[in-house]
Amino acid sequence: MQEPEEKKIALELLETEQAYVNRLHLLDQIFYTELMKEAKNGKTVPEEVVKMIFSNISSIYQFHANFFLPELQKRMEDWSCSPRIGDVIQKLAPFLKMYGEYIKNFDKAVELITVWSEKSPPFQERIADIQKRKVCANLTLQHHMLEPVQRIPRYELLLKDYVRKLPPESPDRDDAEKALEMIFMVAKHSNAAIAEMERLQNLWVVYQRLGLEDDIVDPSNELIKEGPIQKISTRNNSTSEKYLFLFNNMLLYCVPKVIQVGAEFQVHLRIDVDGMKVRELNDTQFPHTFLVSGKQRTLELQAR
């Protein structure tokens, strides 16, 4: 007799989980443990750096090795009398939110490896030494570190497939569908963590370009658009180059700095979006002009 399709997928889940736990073991018990030991002896890099590179990999490893994998193994051994995995995955799903921290930290971790490999040859040598071992299968530390980032999407794909192949009357249908919904929410959670990290990173770059003015630096601000603009001077009928940053709560009217040491722009004026009005003008001499009027001031501007 041929194995039912859903069992094949459940077995694939178990096999990939075993391989995944081996990869986590390599990251936590070999790379992290050995690099930490060297750091404690003061031979390579500060301990803090090693902790930042590996984030919460230890918690992720313990969870998969001591809980999820044994539960899956037990379930597959009992398959003939209880063909189901949905309930186990439901128990697992909330813990996968731990990945948010790891994923958020991933780009920073990879950057730290590069920076400190240049700064500290002993650190680079230690990593190279571990990478030469058979267990690494000729792959770099960065390559192995990518595995947890890809794991949740993998669960989602396998579970989607599993639900699709389940017979309508299967006792696991309700649980498996609920589990899929939960995994989907976790995937969304980690994607949101990545998006938030990127947003804050981009925001910080903008603040640096503005010279880190105290009353402007706020993590809750959202940059909507930025770009060059011409300011029209009605007094002498001329225009001068300016630069605008539009946030969700304010419009910053800036002057590009001639000598760009530190900040790129100087903030000349800040107009609150609250109560701000924008009106297009029909000016034959200056096409594409508009008026921005706010509580603070009114500006006549020309776009490209």
From TrEMBL:
The cellular location(s) given in this protein's UniProt record come to:
Cytoplasm, Cytoskeleton
Q: Which GO terms describe its cellular component?
A: cytoplasm; cytoskeleton
> What are the PH domain coordinates in residue numbering?
222-304
Domain DH stretches: 5-193
Keywords (A to Z) from UniProt: Cytoplasm, Cytoskeleton, Metal-binding, Phosphoprotein, Repeat, Zinc, Zinc-finger
- Pfam families assigned to the protein according to its UniProt record, in alphabetical order: RhoGEF, SOS1_NGEF_PH
- Chain segments annotated as coiled-coil in the UniProt record: none
Show the Gene3D superfamilies listed in the entry. Dbl homology (DH) domain, Pleckstrin-homology domain (PH domain)/Phosphotyrosine-binding domain (PTB)
Which GO biological process categories is it annotated with?
Answer: cytoskeleton organization; filopodium assembly
Q: Does the keyword Oxidoreductase apply?
A: no
Q: Does the keyword Transmembrane helix apply?
A: no
Q: Which Gene Ontology MF annotations are present?
A: guanyl-nucleotide exchange factor activity; zinc ion binding
In its UniProt entry, what is this protein called?
Answer: FGD2 protein
